[in-house]
Design goal:
The chain is built from 6 helices and 12 strands. By secondary structure, the protein is of the alpha/beta class. The chain has one domain: Rossmann fold, CATH 3.40.50. Strand 6, helix 2 and strand 7 form a beta-alpha-beta unit. The radius of gyration is 16 Å and the shape is globular. It binds S-adenosylmethionine.
Length: about 220
């Protein structure tokens, strides 16, 4: 095993995160012991953040101790790996508006002390402003909505600290099924730049996620 990021490891073929809650699985993933510690396999077909890393992305990622505002947490698959990454000193604020997904997210947040569940619409950040402790280090967004970039940028303006990291998993088909995904990714990137952020990378997530791209940006002020 080789360390490739904060609490992220690779055995050359697969990637893993250091399990914050040893002995416990979140979505049936494989648990692996190495040098007395336990790691959870991180499946790039189940998590776009894992797909981004598997695609060779080497730029900024959430790290130990970070406070992450996670928009579109669903049942907590990727949030659980982000929870491993930020570790016991960090925090993952999980925003989700589907009651069905939230029901499954709740027990996971009880098990993992660094995850806070927030039942809210990410389009209305003022509704959960009280639950966000000051400014956050990372805004991570995966909501598969037509106006996903605008939603993310609203949260960035309100909560992201200077030099903070914005990561958005863009689903071209949610924005417009009829248009070329590459054109859509270019347009979304421009919106982020127009909002004053510095885009550091745009990575297509195929073949793990068809017609998706990750856009990674820094708030430069
Ligand atoms: C693709 S899934 C997220 C998967 C999750 N990020 C993961 O990797 O484990 C998208 C989620 O975003 C949620 N969502 C969509 N729009 C939202 C909004 N405006 N506010 C909060 N959640 C939203 C959906 O209910 C859905 O659970």
């Amino acid at each position: 095993m080789r360390k490739i990021g904060s609490n992220i490891y690779s055995d050359g073929r697969r990637i893993y995160t250091l399990n914050l809650t040893p002995g416990k699985r979140v979505y049936g993933e494989r648990l692996v012991k190495w040098k007395g510690k336990e790691y959870r396999e991180w499946n790039p077909r189940r998590s776009k953040l894992a797909a981004l890393i598997k695609k060779g992305y080497k730029g900024p990622l959430p790290k130990e101790g970070d406070v992450v505002l996670y928009l579109g947490a669903a049942q907590g698959t990727t949030p659980s790996h982000v929870s491993d990454i930020v570790g016991p000193q960090g925090l993952v604020i999980c925003v989700e508006f589907s009651a069905k997904a939230f029901e499954k997210l709740l027990p996971l947040c009880e098990e993992r002390q660094n995850m806070i569940p927030v039942f809210a619409d990410a389009n209305n950040p003022e509704e959960y402003a009280d639950l966000v402790p000051g400014k956050v280090d990372v805004v991570y967004e995966d909501v598969a909505q037509k106006r996903q970039t605008e939603i993310g940028l609203k949260n960035v303006r309100m909560f992201l600290k200077e030099k903070g990291l914005f990561m958005i998993m863009v689903k071209a088909r949610s924005i417009d099924v009829t248009r070329d995904p590459q054109t859509i990714f270019r347009e979304e990137k421009k919106k982020i730049e127009k909002a004053g952020l510095e885009v550091v990378d745009v990575v297509r997530l195929d073949p793990f996620e068809k017609d998706h791209a990750a856009i990674i940006a820094l708030k430069t002020g």
